[in-house]
Amino acid sequence: MATDIASTDPQCNTFLLGHSEAEQLFLRCWQNKSLHNSWLITGIQGIGKATFAYRLARFVLHADETKPEQYNSLEVSPSSQAYKLIAGNAHPDFKILQRDYTDTDRKKILKAIKEGDNLSPEELKELKKSAYIRVDDVRTINDFLSRRSSGDGWRVVIIDSVDDMNSAAANAVLKILEEPPYKTLMVLISHNPNRLLPTIRSRCAKLELKPLKDNEVASLLRRYRPDISEANIKKVTAISSGSIGKAISYVDNNAADCYDAICSLVARGTNFSLSELLDFVNKSTSGEDSYYLTQELLLKFLSEHAKNTTKVVETADCWSYAIKTFSEVEGLNLDKKQALINIISNMCKQI
User: Using CA atoms, how far apart are residues 7 and 233, in angstroms rounded to an integer?
Assistant: First the structure.
């Protein structure tokens, strides 16, 4: 495997860890000339599904079909034309479909391009994407497939993710899957395949990627965040649920400190420090990202606690109360600080 590109961007990342069985299954199908036209790649978020999908795309658009025996993996060198064109979003036989930017923010981008300006990192971070992949977005696939491939080779379409499609878009994709053009590979990424139309699932060969092992998450953290301490790697790995994407996000947002603070507060039971709780809550509601991270980690704590306690019923009650309270905050626009105080106080009393 190439190790010279320590990028987490799936479009450029050639490094994949933990999914060799799925890779070999796909490779055998290609070598046996029994490659299904449509593949559904599933698994929890942040385990490398998009990286895997790009890996399939690069291989299919690069490999020599007359010499199938010379390949033992889907690895494609960054020096290859297929890699360079896909990384530059310029391959004529490759298309990626994702949620587009909102109309307003798309105009900002086009204006910047027209005027030769570069949006700052802060401006790029503020750009918003549409809630769904729309039917008009899917129609661009039909336009793409209406053209002949270069050299009569394969064409590859990745949809990341099909969970983001509205009903009209889903039905439009289904029509493509029902009559896939010759030598066209459709790769659909899904975090929640049970929510997809059954007819979409039935039209695809399935590759379910498993959560990464703890040692794999730790190894990837060292690769993508080389400055992280081993102590922090251990803490983050323990709460990442086998997701390197989540682990990286946790590192970047100091989630280990937040999780430790939750553990410390709850461990004191009814003797918790009110001032310490208020400090924690104030910090956790300093911004939307901080609040949602705290929400996620509180539920993560309860999930992990349930595995190692005799107070299973009490922990389940705390979980239900937390879910109900977080839902009310969203639906009724209740005070976030008070919600966190109530949830943590309830945990201290019950578990």
Answer: 18
Q: Which run of H or of E encompasses 205?
A: strand 205-208
**pLDDT digit string, tens, across residues 225-249:** 999 999 999 999 999 999 999 999 9
For the chain, report the end-to-end CA distance as a whole number of angstroms. Answer: 47
- pLDDT tens per residue across span 102-161: 667 666 767 776 777 777 766 666 667 777 899 999 999 999 999 888 878 899 999 999
* Cβ neighbour number for residue 15 with a 10 Å cutoff: 19
In three-state form (DSSP H/G/I as H, E/B as E, the rest C), the secondary structure along 85-133 is: HHHCCCCCCEEEECCCECHHHHHHHHHHHHCCCCCCHHHHHHCCECCCE
**Dist CA 84 CA 77 (whole Å):** 9
Which pair of tokens denotes residue 92? 């004529």
Question: pTM for the complete prediction?
Answer: 0.86
- What pLDDT band is residue 163 in, cutting at 50, 70 and 90? very high
Number of other CB atoms surrounding residue 292 within 10 Å: 14
Output the six-digit token pair for 20.
């060799």
Indicate the Cα dihedral angle 280, 286, 287, 288, nearest 10°: 40
Cβ atoms 269, 245 nearer than 8 A:
no
Q: What is the DSSP letter of 5?
A: -
| Tokens at 253, concatenated | 């947002």
DSSP lists the bridge partners of residue 155 as 184
What are the pLDDT digits (tens) for 186-211?
A: 999 999 999 999 999 999 999 999 99
**135 and 168 in contact (C-beta within 8 Å)?**
yes
Give the length of the chain: 351
Q: Which residue has the tokens 């390949």?
A: 71
